[in-house]
Amino acid sequence: MRLIKRILMGLLIVVVLLGLGVFVWLKSKVANHDQEINLQGLSQPVEVLWDDFGIPHIYAQTEEDAYFALGYVHAQERLFQMEALRRLADGRLSEVFGDMALESDKFFRSLGFRKYAEQTIAQYPKNEGYVKAASAYVNGVNAFIENGDTPVEFELLKIPKTPFSNLDLHIIQGYMGFSFADAFRTDPLMTYIQQSLGEEYTKDLVTTWATNAEKIPVTKGNEKEIALRKGAESVQNLLALGNQVLELQKAAPFPTFHGSNSWVVAGSKTKSKGVIFSNDTHIAFSQPSVFFEANLVYPNQNFYGNFIAGIPMAVIGHNDKAGWGLTMFENDDVDFYREKINPANANQVWFKDHWEDLTIRKEVIKVKGKPDVAVQYRSSRHGVLINEFDKKFVHEKSPVALWWVLTQFPDRSLKVFYDLAHATDVKQAEAAASMIHFPGLNVMYGDAKGNIAWWASAKLPKRPAHVKPYMILDGASGKDEIEGWLDFSQNPHAVNPASGFVYSANNQPEDMGTGLVAGYYVAPDRATRIKQLLNTPKNDWTTEDMHQMITEHKSAMAPTVIQSIAPIIKSTGHTELLTWDGTHDLEDIEPTIYYRFLYRMYEATFKDELGAEGFKAFINSQTMKRSLQNFIVNDTSKWWDNKDTKNIETRTQIIQSALNQAYTDLAAQLGTDKKAWHWQKVHTLEHVHPVGRQKPLNKLFNVGPLPAMAGKEVINNLDFPLDSSGYYKVSYGPALRRVIDFSKPFEGQSINPTGQSGYFMSKHYDDQARMYVEGKFRGELIRKEDVEKVKSGKQVLKPNQ
């Protein structure tokens, strides 16, 4: 017995020592923020002060040294994120993740980001400041790769450490423009409805913009009127492709952009008399968080920015004189063209009056542990034949080509954001915004001189007047071709409007005299609420007021929807929703009931006509969101009847049944006590790391889940997929919240969804997560004396003599 005890004790000691050894090894990989490092590539020493939230403040003597240091510290904290993003965009995930990433690689290879990046770099103006800064950043990243510690993820997944190049910057930038998932879902969906069900069904869905919905006010000009629309032909298998793209986005190691809010209030409406700027960018959640914050200080520049992994220029930021933010414009920058193949030559398609050769590009995808996979991509004049490389479409005789604004012009995004970071007045900012051609961005601007502005920035195509929106176009006739481009002056915009504020919530801009810009604009809920709050006589707005507004979770539309069906609700005896004001507090039960009811109503109304793939595409589309307010009061719509039954169902019957079913569902899910159906039980936020998708590694790498206030299309937009589960796991929302009063730009405030560090053993991996869900803020420090007060570390990067 003693011997057994000794053996067990010995084993226990070994396990403890091994565990301790692993812990010590893991802790040793936390970045050391207190050290001096000699590096090849610097011209002079650079001081990096780390504040109490792990944000680097870089003090350099030259701009190139500042960007070199940014590259070094960015890689020090986020190298795995940078690596995963460049592999995702370049279609090289299978090299490290195996064939589970093959479909993703096939898809992103089809988009040709590498070829586009090569074409962009070939046009580099070698001596411009942004080119030098970008190259310095890449050199800094590579200095860490060569000299720094290897991230844990690299060792777990056996990822080789390889240098970055300027090519990688533009490949990643191409992925940042991949914001057209709604085109993949909506165009095939609406074409399918039009061709298989007819106009009686199509007319009841808001495919453009409802006339009674809030539009962003513009400064109108006298430009010649044009129409921006798309045209149609039937397609069904593309519904599956659209849903596949959505799944690829969910599984990607780096999230896609979804929307955002921003508003800028003039000094005439603020207590300080300075411009107050607010921005929260809506992006799918992941871990590490999307943005890496840094403060760059060098002669004639003190800039605080939010950077994306592998991209040297901040996409959002401010200096002490001016600042900008972004929301997605949501303009329609994608068209699908149905091509006509030559029966005698499968590598030719018809255009107008002749056969044209397709171009053929061959790619080889390396797959970990498996043979290489050869993939062939064919392209017409319109773009890559998007449905050819997927096995779901082997029986398609008429391929569909993807046309995208991205490939029509060289990428100037690095220069755009470099110039915005240096802008000190509205003219400089406008010149920078005018260079954006993709993705469509609402550039929001404010400065210390009192100017406020908004520009819808994108290259906007002129489409023929006969084409219809959200449909597959005819690639053979030549009648649906793009006719040209609007000048930037014709883009929607507003500069110093009489209202005293500009705002954007991804909603439709007003007509500039060129017709409404076609797009996949979100429902007007957030825009309506923002305007309700700002368009008042109130002239003493403060940053504290903005904090409350940016974290508000009251729906402007849900109570309106409920009241429009109030008699039907009363007839069921389930009256809890009738007094709901639209708030989404943790203890509220109304949102729990409302979203369960919505799902059951949509299911009973649309699934019989659309089928499984069509319903999956529809249920979370912007078409669904935009249509709800008008559709739910439409007694005559053919959608209400279930075509699979002999009876003719009415709107009243469907709504009654859906609400009753929702209560039955919730009783089974959460118990019969309705007072216990709290929103926090079903609405949670978890930040998922790519490695954390595998249990039990989720316990180490993921952050959360945390109960979360807010919901769909409220200002604090913590959105989620609507499905049959009864649980609403947040999929996207504000990737940051920031508020700046330009009367005191050194007191800007912000919050990150999780933390600065990309390493789970760092205290800065999740030190903002709880603050974020509670609606709290922390400082964006740009004065060195303020940084010194909260300094948590000091790195000195020295030239390697």
UniProtKB/TrEMBL annotation:
Coiled coil: none annotated. Keywords: Hydrolase, Membrane, Transmembrane, Transmembrane helix, Zymogen. InterPro entries: Ntn_hydrolases_N, Pen/GL7ACA/AHL_acylase, Penicillin_amidase_A-knob, Penicillin_amidase_dom1, Penicillin_amidase_N_B-knob, S45. It is an enzyme of class 3 (hydrolase). One of its GO terms (molecular function) is hydrolase activity. The chain crosses the membrane at residues 7-26. It holds the Pfam family Penicil_amidase. The keyword RNA-binding does not apply. SUPFAM superfamilies: N-terminal nucleophile aminohydrolases (Ntn hydrolases). Its EC number is 3.5.1.-. PANTHER family: PENICILLIN ACYLASE FAMILY PROTEIN, PEPTIDASE S45 PENICILLIN AMIDASE. Belongs to the peptidase S45 family. This is Penicillin acylase family protein.
